[in-house]
Amino acid sequence: MPEGIATTTILPDNQLSNQKKVYIKTYGCQMNVYDSIRMSDALAKVGYSEISDLADADLILINTCHIREKAAEKVYSELGRIRKLKNARKDTDRPLTLGVTGCVAQAEGIEIIKREPAVDLVVGPQTYHRLPEILAKTAPGKPVVETEYAVEDKFDHLPLPEKKRTISRGVTAFLTVQEGCDKFCTFCVVPYTRGSEVSRSARQIITEARNLCDAGVREITLLGQNVNAWHGEGLDGKSWGLGQLLGELSKVNGLVRLRYITSHPRDMDEALIDAHRNLDILMPYLHLPVQAGSDKILKAMNRQHTAQEYIELIDTVKRARPDIALSGDFIVGFPGETEEDFSATLKLIERIKYAQAYSFKYSMRPGTPGAELENQVPEDIKSERLARLQALLNEQQLQFNESFIGKSMDILLEKPGRDPKQLIGRSPWLQSVIVDASVGKIGDIVNVTITEAGPNSLKVVGA
Ligand code: 5AD
Ligand code: SF4
């Protein structure tokens, strides 16, 4: 799942003086954003309010990402900074509790406390529903580490999103339908940090979607590390696939847009492709990572398909939904990647034409098979290849955006713009569209004609 530094929307900080205050910092992918919201909801039940000022918190949680070395290392510098704050509050009537959650917590467990003794609790992603109880057990000098996979399903225990809290978070929402991954790509830590694939039931998902829409949510993005491998219990008690689930979700009152992220090519089945053909509510956008364009590298990555199979799959999806925007993830410099292999990736990109993409230098992750491979690619070669790859992807993204100039589209108004006279909307193809605030209010779908396009957004001037 694509990641960057993510933020959660927080309730206003006013009049919270009597309550305990939690500050949650979220790194990584959308699933961490979703998890942070659910942790905040669980903590609200035991009297915590979420705030946006770290220095005023009673509890600080760092929700972490382990996907690449850089992401994991950031956590320790952050913890070091918080240690100083914690020390300053040590003998006051407001001691500070510090927790690490997410994939670094899962992967490193007790090692985190050995490296940073200021940490009071370490909680893995499968135990978030027990956070209030774990917190109650935590005492100064007695850190608690909980990274076991719980026997119970955390989603049976986490509170459903509350109406008042959901309203404050806006008209778009994430909803986790599946966690974990059984694909074992040789570069990836996810099967180890998030565990094997677990799908929530259709009933649970539909209840949560209804709940979100009752609170004014209009667009839901279904989340999963391998979302199109979703195979939960259907409403009829039989096993369903994602295509069928999307069909059922399309009936939820108030919901006008559906998306899902992130998928594996091997799990794009016919029912899902049909959903793109038949469901208007399903937005014409597909994030389908390929990682590399050389069959030799795809094999070494254990991606379980060839470049040609990926191209044919995209062609099939395009026949079902000709206007679909394509997005992907790429890794450059996987061990053994030659200039010729890299050229095959560029060739594949030229052939597919991406609307948007994420690209990374290969990062060696301890415990994954990729870390054991010989002929690791030198850092300077990785950097040089990444620059070439990103130049091509940026060019394609700009071309894609420019193709909409003069065209009209429905956009969902999502949030205020930086300029108070503007609003930011979202196109069906996931582009940000900057419009004049007079076109409508947040939550409306309005039809606009695009006048300008840049690499990262579209604009409507003079509407
Ligand atoms: N090095 C670089 N990129 C990686 N990703 C996953 N593991 C690694 C790694 N070890 C990228 C993949 C994946 C995205 C979420 O992160 O492209 O699709
Ligand atoms: Fe990681 Fe591969 Fe699973 Fe994606 S499909 S989460 S890259 S192991």
The overall strand count is 21
Helicity, as a percent range? 25-40%
Ligand kinds: 5'-deoxyadenosine, iron/sulfur cluster
For the record, the CATH class of the largest domain is Alpha Beta
CATH superfamily of the largest domain: tm_1862 like domain
CATH topology of the largest domain: pyruvate-formate lyase- activating enzyme
Radius of gyration: 22 Å
Give the class from helix and strand content and strand pairing: alpha/beta
Shape designation? globular
Quick one: biggest sheet? Answer: 7 strands, mixed
Low-confidence stretches: 4-17
Mean pLDDT figure? 92
- Give the termini separation: 36 Å
User: How many individual domains?
Assistant: 3
What percent of residues are in strands? 15-25%
What does the model show?
The protein is an alpha/beta fold and 463 residues long. The chain has 15 helices and 21 strands. The protein has helices at residues 30-44, 69-88, 103-108, 110-115, 131-137, 154-157, 163-167, 190-193, 202-214, 242-249, 270-278, 295-300, 307-320, 339-352, 379-402; strands at 3-6, 20-29, 48-50, 59-64, 97-102, 121-123, 144-146, 172-176, 178-179, 198-199, 219-223, 257-261, 285-287, 325-332, 356-361, 408-416, 422-426, 432-436, 445-449, 452-453, 457-459. A hairpin with a 3-residue loop joins strand 20 and strand 21. The radius of gyration is 22 Å and the shape is globular. Mean pLDDT is 92; it is low at 4-17. Bound molecules: 5'-deoxyadenosine and iron/sulfur cluster (SF4). Iron/sulfur cluster binds next to helix 8.
